[in-house]
Design goal:
Length: 229
């Protein structure tokens, strides 16, 4: 990874591995004061700019070598397909505080409509998740209830040279389990939209100022990186 935080990967599994390695080599370790797993250590990159050149490559999920019996793959292709369906569901069954589908569902159809009716040369079609009220929701947090707000905040879109591209921003991003699920689900969402728009799937770009591993994930990540690369 260079000084701009850039990681270029061919597909979702390669992106997962490269991100794990970058965190272990260059991440900053600290103890979490507030938020998920408060009191645990987290190793985090201050900034990452990830580009997948072929996000639709299969498999979408990480494939671990069989000689790592103590490390379980964080997600399967079947689970990614199920997760992708929730991105399009307005009332999915899931976490009480939010689900990405409640934000994306109304916007996906509108983005498709505007591209089909207004043409592909537009910079307007950016899908937002969460709102200004998200930060105030933490006021209602108690010792018995942790309040969550969306980690994925932006899914911007563009169609260039006959291909649909995604540009995403995560305020916080768990590299071990969250990243492979999110990237795979977004890749499938790209395929869904591209098919309707009759364009190809382009590049999937994602950035975050908080791509991290929790302390209880570190041993698994090190085992993968030592064996795979």
């Amino acid at each position: 990874m260079d000084l701009t935080g850039s990681i270029i990967a061919r597909d979702c599994p390669e992106a997962w591995f490269l991100c794990l390695r970058a965190i272990l080599v260059e991440g900053r370790r600290y103890t979490i004061d507030k938020g998920s797993f408060a009191g645990h250590d987290r190793i985090e990159l201050d900034w990452v700019n990830l580009c997948l050149t072929h996000p639709s490559n299969r498999p979408l999920s990480p494939q671990l070598p069989p000689y790592l019996p103590d490390v379980i793959a964080p997600v399967t292709d079947t689970q990614i397909e199920e997760y992708a369906q929730t991105l399009l569901q307005y009332h999915p069954v899931g976490r009480a505080d939010y689900h990405y589908g409640e934000f994306l569902n109304p916007q996906v159809d509108e983005v498709i409509r505007q591209y089909k009716e207004g043409g592909f040369n537009s910079n307007r079609l950016c899908m937002m998740l969460g709102d200004m009220h998200s930060v105030f929701a933490y006021r209602d947090e108690t010792g018995q209830r942790e309040v969550h707000s969306p980690c994925l905040r932006v899914v911007d879109t563009a169609i260039r040279d006959g291909a649909l591209h995604f540009y995403c921003y995560f305020r916080s991003w768990d590299a071990w389990a969250g990243l492979p699920s999110n990237l795979g689900g977004l890749a499938l969402l790209m395929e869904f939209m591209a098919e309707i728009l009759e364009v190809s799937v382009g590049m999937l770009r994602a950035c975050s100022k908080g791509l991290h591993l929790y302390d209880f994930e570190e041993t698994w990540a090190r085992a993968v990186c030592e064996e795979v690369g």
